[in-house]
């Protein structure tokens, strides 16, 4: 484990399967620590909107349903991190998704002098994830709602849709399987670096928040 200055801003790499509640918990961390969010999928979508050559390339790959090569995602993530003042901490979400990407990220963070890093894992077992995903709806603005009987989002009044990959048991199992096969080995890689902090995601939202704040020494 590397040592780091006590006042060095925290970099949190957030892990948790769909249905683990990680979006909600990530928002708590963003607010409490004034972190800058670095979201893998968002960086790709934003870059695809740019008129630059790289933007057009990213758009093409994204629209074809393929993944960007690791080197290109790394470039987008690095570009974003460099734009954040070094006194501000980071919340990295949706990246890395594979061990190779984890190695690249670790090397980059070290190079950029961000050595106060935690890989926060919100743990929820497969059966519970399945139960949660089969019982949720999502408004068009991304609010995740528990239950299936909404016509309007209680938060902003927007239309509510049930996403196919949340209704179809087979699709849900595929997402859980992807997490097990690709993301869990990524977490194990960070464990060898002494970065992993695990919390029990099968508690109330407030209890999960408390466990996270305690384990990250946030007061
Ligand atoms: Zn909403």
Automatic annotation (TrEMBL):
Pathway: Purine metabolism; AMP biosynthesis via salvage pathway; AMP from ADP: step 1/1. Its main location: cytoplasm. Its EC number is 2.7.4.3. ATP binds at residues 19-24, 136, 203. The keyword ATP-binding applies. GO terms for molecular function: AMP kinase activity; ATP binding. GO terms for cellular component: cytoplasm. Residues 39-68 are annotated as: NMP. It is an enzyme of class 2 (transferase). Keywords: ATP-binding, Cytoplasm, Kinase, Nucleotide biosynthesis, Nucleotide-binding, Transferase. Belongs to the adenylate kinase family. Catalyzes the reversible transfer of the terminal phosphate group between ATP and AMP. Plays an important role in cellular energy homeostasis and in adenine nucleotide metabolism. This is Adenylate kinase.
């Amino acid at each position: 484990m590397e040592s780091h200055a006590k006042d060095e801003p925290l970099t949190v790499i957030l892990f948790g399967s769909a249905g683990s509640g990680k979006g909600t918990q990530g928002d708590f961390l963003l607010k409490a620590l004034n972190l800058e969010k670095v979201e893998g999928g968002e960086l790709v979508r934003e870059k695809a909107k740019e008129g630059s050559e790289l933007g057009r390339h990213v758009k093409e790959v994204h629209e074809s349903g393929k993944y960007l090569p690791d080197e290109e995602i790394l470039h987008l993530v690095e570009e974003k991190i460099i734009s954040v003042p070094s006194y501000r901490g980071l919340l990295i979400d949706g990246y890395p998704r594979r061990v190779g990407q984890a190695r690249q990220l670790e090397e980059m963070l070290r190079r950029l002098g961000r050595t106060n890093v935690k890989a926060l894992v919100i743990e929820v077992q497969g059966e519970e994830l399945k139960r949660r995903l089969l019982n949720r709806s999502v408004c068009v603005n991304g609010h995740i709602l528990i239950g299936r009987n909404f016509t309007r989002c209680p938060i902003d009044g927007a239309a509510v849709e049930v996403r196919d990959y949340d209704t179809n048991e087979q699709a849900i199992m595929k997402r859980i399987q992807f997490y097990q096969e690709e993301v869990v080995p990524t977490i194990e890689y960070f464990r060898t670096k002494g970065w992993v902090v695990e919390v029990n995601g099968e508690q109330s939202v407030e209890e999960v928040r408390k466990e996270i704040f305690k384990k990250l020494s946030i007061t």
